[in-house]
Structure formats: C-alpha cells, structure tokens
C-alpha cells in the first residue's frame, strides 16, 4: 500500500512553527538594515565629498614674492605687474603665448585709420567696489595713465588720446600711426581701475578697485598684501578663497619657504638654492629676460667708445653662466634671447666694431642690486674679469628700491641689470625705445644716438610680421655697435610650487602667476 503523505502543517512541532514565524521578519529586518547601511555610506561619502570641496574652496594660497612694491602698488608703475600676477587688475587686451592680442575687458576692436582704433567694452562687468565698468571709466583710467609723471614705459614716445564712443566703446587716437596699440593696451600698467582708485590727487589706490577674480583688500606696506575671492567676477569663479602674498627679497629665505612649506608658490628661486630643494618643486621656464651690463656714455670713463669696447672684450659670458647660474641660463648673442626664436635666425655677425683701448688702471664704479640673488655674484665675477683686463673696479650694491634713482640718473659708470625684454607690449621695440632711445625713460646708459633712434623709428612704424622683425634685429645691431649695453646672458625663471598646487601659471612674461583656475590638489589625488 502506498503510504498516505503526511501534512506538515498538521504534524510539525509548535516550536518549529514559532521559529519559522520569527525567521521571516528577521530576514526582512536584516535586509533593511543592510540597505540602510548602504544608503548611510553613500550619504556619508557624498557628505565627505561635499565637505572636501568646501574645504578646498576655503583654502588660501601663500605666495612669496621677489620684491616689495616700489610705489605702494600704484598700478601706473612697475608695481602693476604684481596686481596682474595676483589676477586683481585687468586690461582691455591680453596676449596669447605668441604675443598676439586677445579679448579681455574689450571684446573686439578695429583700426579705423592708421591713427584711430575703436574698442568695444565687455558688458556686465563690475569693479570690486560694486560700480559698473563703463566706457567713461575706461577713458578716465587710460587718461590717468597718459598724464602720469613719469609715464608708464609702454607709453614712452606715444601721444595717446582716449574718448568714449557711446556707452560701450572707446576711441583711442595716437598722434602718429601706431600698429601696436592693442599690444600696448595689454600692459599691466594700463589696467582699468574704478574711479575710487583716483580719488586722491597724485595717488592711485588699487584696493577694491580692480575687475579680476581676486579683490585686493589690504596693503601691508613692504611686508605683504591680502586678496580675497571676488564672487562677482564676470568670468569663472576663482577656486581659491584668497591669496596671502609676502615680499621676500632674500633669495635664501624664499628657498627655505619652499622647502619648509611655509609658501605654496615662490617667485624666482635662486640658482644657489635649487640643489637644496626637492626637484619636484622646481619648474624652469625660458624667459625673455637678459642680464646686461650697461655702460654710462655721457659721464665718466665710458664716454670713450674704446674703453667701452675694452669692457666688452673683458667679459667671459660662459664663465658667468657656468659658475653663477650653474648652467641654468643661456649665453647672450644679442639683446634678444632664445625666447624669441626668430631673433637668432635673423641675426648676422656684427661688423665695424670699435677697437678696444688699454684700460691702464682706469677706475670705474660698478653697481647692481640685491633683490635678484645672482646679481651680486655676477658683480663679483665681473669685477675679477674687468680687473684682469686692467680696470680698477669699485662695487656698490644695494636693494633695488634704494638704487634705482641713482641708476637712472647716471651716477654709475657701469650697472648690471636683469631686464625683461617683452615685459610691456609683447614686442621688443618698446623695451629698446625705453632703454636706448634719446627720449627713453629707462635709459641707464644715457645713450642718445641718431642712428639708433632712426632704426627704432623704422621698426616701430611697421606692422607686426617678418618685415618688422627684420627691422628690430637691425636696430639691435646699431645698439650693440655702440657698446653702451653689453648683453651677458638670458635668464630662465625658476618658479617654486608645492606639490599640492595645481595650475599656477608659469609665464615667461611674468604677467600671470595665480588665476581663477589655480587650486590645491584634492586629498584623493594626493596619494
């Protein structure tokens, strides 16, 4: 017989039934707890990520600057380049890597005739004090630059008049045809500032007066400056909360700040410090900067062209590069270095050079400054080379702020200067005019030569392109023949950056350093 199937429900022990009844709710509860844990973990991860982003946005960057301001951060002076490097002051035009003009506070421009240009002003831009960028304020700001004493270098030899053309454009007129007007308007010394900057006669205050992603909130004399993120910026919001800038003229101290992490970005790390620093913190950029020996042509021994030639012949440029710069520089063949590749391609050997005379113990004063750590070392080596040739050399070395006026007044027979050759317009004619023309405002050599002025005028009248470049090299040749400026080497900028820093700008022209994209690496990316 087949056995009758047993009905579990009728025969299972009551305890088993109870256990089964309890098991299902417990399983449901376990799954619920697991799901809840997963959700909590996801929520926690999202919370952590949001917290990290907030912390990143609240971080401030510490930068060690090479030199203190010379004029209280007056934007009409060389101090303008600090304002530009901190991204607080902006210009109508900016230059790209090739030196070609690009839109900035002006969105477009056109040349109406050889002496007239029209620039359209970017709409919906506010200054850091909340006032609006208008054509009228552009006129007022640029006019202040044209009337400044002394004028910004970029306006040397340029007569410029600016007027509004409606509410959103300005007309720029020059006395002579000038193909480089857009380039000139890219100079940090022609930054557009709010009306409050000019409120006090004879003084320009850049505090809360720019248009950039960072607002300058505090100027602490020659000690430092404080900047905060400007949330009303017309472009992308800055990733950093702010910038704390300290002026550290001593090169050893700047190197130590990088090594110890007390600074996140360091300007101009001295060559002598590089070997002591982790290589991952060092970034070397070829730059249009020439270390030049200027000789006084109107007073003292170097009025004599033959003695200037003797100084030229005494120089051993290679020895300076090898010893002082430890090979981190390029021996100069002319005023314009390898940052301008076309210069070496166009340059021809100089002929008809003045013959050198015997110095016979001629006494000369040689000056330079301490702000660039290599220059006093160059002076020591140069003194040895000149004395080996028969000169009697007396050195005078001070901080730049304390020596500039004497340098420009021609109180030295010879002066060593590290000079940026594309600093202002992205075109070397402005530098050559400033340093070597009869009307130049930075003419350390006191040079005035009709042939040089004619060569510079010819180059300056030509539009950008091959013909202008050839004329620039011809002007360089005339300057070199005078032996008023003896180029020794072309520097490379050595910039220090913490491994935590992302997108600090390595700019050969030294116009940019920290911008809206600069930030710190996130913790997850640091490992």
UniProtKB/TrEMBL annotation:
Residues 101-441 form the Solute-binding protein family domain. Keywords: Signal. Residues 1-35 form the signal peptide. InterPro entries: Peptide/Ni-bd, SBP_5, SBP_5_dom. Coiled coil: none annotated. Pfam families: SBP_bac_5. It comes from the Bacteria. This is ABC transporter substrate-binding protein. The lineage of its organism: Bacteria, Pseudomonadati, Pseudomonadota, Gammaproteobacteria, Oceanospirillales.
């Amino acid at each position: 017989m087949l056995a009758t199937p047993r009905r579990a429900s009728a025969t299972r022990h009551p305890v088993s039934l109870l256990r089964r009844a309890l098991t299902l709710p417990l399983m449901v509860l376990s799954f619920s707890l697991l799901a809840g844990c997963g959700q909590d973990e996801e929520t926690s991860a999202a919370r952590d990520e949001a917290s990290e982003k907030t912390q990143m946005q609240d971080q401030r960057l510490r930068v060690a600057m090479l030199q203190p301001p010379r004029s209280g951060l007056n934007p009409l002076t060389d101090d303008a380049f600090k304002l530009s490097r901190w991204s607080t002051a902006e210009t109508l035009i900016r230059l790209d890597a090739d030196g070609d003009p690009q839109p900035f506070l002006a969105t477009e421009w056109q040349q109406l005739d050889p002496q007239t240009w029209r620039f359209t002003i970017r709409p919906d831009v506010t200054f850091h004090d909340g006032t609006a960028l208008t054509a009228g304020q552009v006129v007022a700001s640029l006019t202040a630059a044209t009337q400044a004493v002394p004028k910004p270098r970029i306006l040397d030899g340029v007569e410029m008049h600016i007027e509004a053309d409606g509410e959103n454009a300005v007309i720029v007129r020059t006395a002579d045809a000038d193909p480089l007007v857009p380039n000139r308007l890219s100079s940090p010394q022609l930054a557009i500032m709010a009306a409050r900057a000019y409120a006090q006669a004879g003084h320009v205050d850049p505090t809360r007066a720019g248009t950039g992603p960072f607002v300058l909130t505090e100027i602490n004399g020659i000690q430092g400056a404080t900047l905060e993120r400007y949330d009303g910026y017309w472009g992308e919001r800055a990733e950093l909360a702010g910038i704390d800038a300290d002026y550290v003229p001593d090169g050893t101290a700047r190197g130590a700040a990088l090594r110890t992490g007390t600074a996140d970005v360091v300007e101009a790390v001295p060559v002598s410090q590089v070997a002591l620093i982790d290589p991952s913190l060092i970034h070397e950029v070829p730059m249009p900067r020439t270390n030049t020996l200027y000789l006084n042509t109107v007073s003292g021994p170097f009025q004599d062209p033959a003695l200037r030639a003797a100084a030229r012949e005494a120089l051993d440029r290679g020895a300076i590069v090898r010893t002082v710069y430890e090979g981190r520089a390029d021996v100069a063949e002319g005023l314009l270095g390898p940052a301008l590749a076309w210069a070496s391609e166009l340059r021809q050997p100089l002929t008809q050079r003045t013959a050198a005379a015997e110095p016979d113990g001629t006494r000369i004063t040689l000056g330079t400054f301490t702000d660039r750590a290599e220059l006093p070392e160059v002076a020591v080596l140069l003194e040895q080379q000149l004395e080996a040739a028969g000169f009697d050399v007396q050195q005078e070395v001070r901080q730049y702020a304390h020596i500039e006026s004497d340098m420009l007044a021609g109180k030295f027979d010879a002066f060593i200067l590290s000079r940026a050759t594309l600093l202002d317009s992205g075109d070397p004619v402005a530098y050559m005019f400033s340093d070597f023309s009869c009307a130049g405002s930075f003419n350390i050599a006191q040079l005035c030569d009709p042939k040089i002025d004619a060569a510079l005028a010819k180059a300056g009248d030509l539009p950008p392109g091959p013909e202008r470049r050839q004329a620039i090299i011809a002007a360089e040749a005339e300057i070199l023949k005078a032996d008023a400026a003896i180029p020794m080497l072309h520097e490379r900028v050595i910039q220090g950056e913490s491994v935590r820093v992302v997108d600090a700008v390595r700019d050969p022209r030294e116009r940019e350093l920290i911008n809206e994209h600069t930030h710190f690496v996130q913790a997850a990316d640091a490992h």
